[in-house]
């Protein structure tokens, strides 16, 4: 059992997921030695962070923020002295050449480099007690882009809807699902975003879990989904599971008379999902018709019932309305789930507004009223 104060756990989570230091709170009410030892044992000497470190820029900003605060508390406690290793790592970061550099011939600086993001999570949600037992938490580490726009589309990062859906699934394992659950997540132009959705696989049925990443992408812009899957997920429980697979799914084939038959075969014979998961996939009105068409094919009558859980962030109400209308026009049953995120399990997201659910809704889509 490895226990730390809940306020220190917040710093640990923030450091692991690259939360800006300005959003972190220094626990000045705790004993100086406790704070100091936490920084040395759980940040500086943490083997996980040595293997999957946050970006150099973030580490530099973190130590720049916390060292003066630590020195201030140490000055009031003659029994404590700042470990020289803290200064050594900060000086090394200051002299590192991996930070933003001017690009010859261009104004501004280079875009931020990719970085490892580590999420802490547990089946029962966040602990409510003052002490947090780290052994109760699992971690998932993902190599992500830190840019908003990359290769002509949104950056290869996990957006808020994926995090909200992952938390919903973790806190509601197997809810409204059949006993054999396969995970199947569609994403267009965002092939790396299904990783966090695979967090609850072991909670449902890891032996049966099967992940497919549906991608409609240009291979001249992105690596194949299989490569992205192997490089982005560092420590996810399902990343090395033999039943974790990926395949390309061309949504437009659902609108092509010549493509419907092979697509139906792919959906029913190869993927054969019980539950379809998707997040942040309604952002372009032009993509709504092929998306709804492929959902209709995937959810059509089969040997057993199927359903889809789609988490969506409402950015443009008109686009959202077009999607819900299109789903209902096909005869599919659409239901918005009544849920409320009390404590956000995954704190790293540029989209967090502080509002309940941060504008994210989760929709269940099925082909029959019985779902």
Automatic annotation (TrEMBL):
InterPro entries: Methyltransf_16, SAM-dependent_MTases_sf. GO terms for biological process: methylation. It comes from the Eukaryota. GO terms for molecular function: S-adenosylmethionine-dependent methyltransferase activity. The keyword Transferase applies. It holds the Pfam family Methyltransf_16. Keywords: Methyltransferase, Transferase. PANTHER family: HEPATOCELLULAR CARCINOMA-ASSOCIATED ANTIGEN (PTHR14614), PROTEIN-LYSINE N-METHYLTRANSFERASE EEF2KMT (PTHR14614:SF130). This is Protein-lysine N-methyltransferase EFM3. It comes from Mycena sanguinolenta. The lineage of its organism: Eukaryota, Fungi, Dikarya, Basidiomycota, Agaricomycotina.
